[in-house]
Design goal:
The structure is a single chain. The chain is an alpha+beta fold and 127 residues long. It has a single domain (5-126), classed as Electron Transport, Fmn-binding Protein, Chain A (Pnp Oxidase, Chain A, Roll). It is 24% helix and 49% strand. The chain contains 3 helices and 7 strands; from the N terminus they run αββββαββαβ. Strands 2-1-5-6-7-4-3 form a 7-stranded antiparallel beta sheet. A hairpin with a 2-residue loop joins strand 5 and strand 6. The protein is globular. The two termini are 26 Å apart.
Length: 127
């Protein structure tokens, strides 16, 4: 699927927090995390409940927004399918990209696991 160029521009414009929604046993779980986006794929590094949820149910939603003083400027909502990548080399590369985006050492958060999300749909709203 092709992602709207405006959504791609916004997703890569600044280091914002994504809110990842997972689901287990019919109950949603939403958590903030860092991400990188490139060409229809979102990469995140995570652990704990989110990772357990993704192993059980790969369907996710993500929301990224930019605001000024609590007033929203824009938001991008994504829906997709997550794949847990149990590959140490791939994790190190992705983790370095994510950490670089947010201005921390490339090997920070090295106890996480790489998750790639293939975006199936995206919507953009500006305020």
């Amino acid at each position: 699927m092709s992602i709207d160029p405006e959504a791609e521009r916004l997703l890569t414009s600044e280091p914002l927090i994504a809110h990842l929604a997972t689901c287990r046993d019919g109950r949603p779980h939403i958590a903030p995390l860092w991400y990188v986006y490139d060409d229809g794929v979102v990469e995140v590094a995570t652990t704990g409940r989110k990772l357990d949820d993704l192993r059980e149910n790969p369907y996710v939603s993500l929301s990224v927004e930019s605001s000024d003083g609590g007033h929203p400027e824009w938001m991008v909502s994504l829906r997709g399918t997550a794949t847990v990548v149990d590959d140490e080399a791939a994790f190190r590369e992705a983790n370095a990209r994510i950490n670089r985006k947010y201005g921390v050492d490339g090997d920070a958060w090295d106890d996480n696991t790489l998750v790639r999300i293939d975006v199936g749909s995206a919507s953009v709203r500006t305020y």
